[in-house]
Model the fold of this input.
Amino acid sequence: MNTPQLVVIDDEADLGSLVCDVAEQSGFGVSQFTSSRQFMEQYNGCVDVIVLDLMMPDIDGIEVIRFLSQKQCPAQIILMSGFDSTVLLNLNRLLKIMSCWSFFSPRSVFLTDRPGLWVCG
Done:
């Protein structure tokens, strides 16, 4: 059986490392990127879960989502934001306008009970 793969994309390396440590202890193979551009350049489609910070300095999370949609990425996506949940609710509206839902089905989209986390996939 193949080990599920998780990718963390967050410019805060310490936070990304924490997420990777927890994922590894949970049985995932992990990769960490502190640059959206680097992730997009190295993307090969072999990922099951993506943990994505929305506010990245080089390419923001919305552009990464657009990229993943164009690549028809089947991964579950966990979005993080240091801002309150209003940012994530507004992103939900934006994704619908961008028609990303044509690929990212809303079947498993929910806001967690923790501000700053949102899951789709």
User: Anything to note?
Assistant: The domain at 5-120 is CATH 3.40.50.2300 (Rossmann fold). The longest helix spans residues 13-25. The chain has one domain: 5-120. The beta strands are 5-9, 29-33, 49-53, 76-80, 110-111, 117-120.
